[in-house]
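Researcher: Please generate the 3D structure of the following complex. Treat every line as part of one assembly.
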Amino acid sequence: MTKFYPQRVANEITVVLRSVGVADFPIDVRAVAMEISKQKYPDDPITVVKGSNLPGFEGALSPAPPGKIGWGIIYNNGVTSLGRVNFTLGHEFGHYLLHRKAYPNGFHCSTEDMATWESEYAQRENEANVFAATLLMPLDDFRLQIDERLRPDFDELGACANRYGVSLMAATLRWLQYTSRRSMLVVSKEGFILWARSSRAALRSGLYFKTRNRPPIAIPEKSLAANTGSATTSRVSCQFDAEVWLDQPCTEHALLSDQYDFTLSLLHFPDGEFNAGVFEESFGEDTADRIRSRKPGQSWLG
Ligand SMILES: [Zn+2]
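Model: Done. Output below.
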């Protein structure tokens, strides 16, 4: 099975880094982007990686001013989270490798662009995120940190976020790509679900929230997300019976992040069976067939 192109490009870089012994975590994206681009594209390299005033954006890929060659990766210097900055650098490096020829004016990328790990929103943003996630969090290493059968909490995923130099959200999304458990990340704000991502096993059994182009979905009244209290960072966990989330018993780990201004809920459901009826009703028969035919270990993004 051929891997999704952005994954292949990132994996090739990982192989190079490992072969020369500079693959320690976290990956130094700034150095890697400048060195790899200089070697692969000496006439069109990344010459600058720097912070700047970028209100409303996380990062940008910009062509050099007229008369100069190359590209610059710019990140918003108002962002204090090193993990967010690191992922942004990876995302913009992805745009450089994958998209710069088709988009000579470059990119300006928002917070939403960084959180978009699905192609239906914007294919290029998804590709840049897949590239960044693959480069920064190689799955062979991630699986050694958290076995695919475990149900981690935010402390365990946070340890991985630190290891890879990414945000907790990015580490959680990456873990969701390989876990064999029925789990889900729900991002909410002021009582409503902004978006949610399900693991493959959860998706197969009809456990998901569709939020795009839909009326807002209120978070369940009894959930932790609805009761996280004051606006300071806090981590709490609770087990619920079937009347709180999606008519299923689950464990919810919730984190109210003052840094992000939203609440993360990590839901772990008991193991269950693929419910094709529920799935086809929501996504259509073709998609259900495609997902059903995926092999274990195959990325949902791939
Ligand atoms: Zn982007």
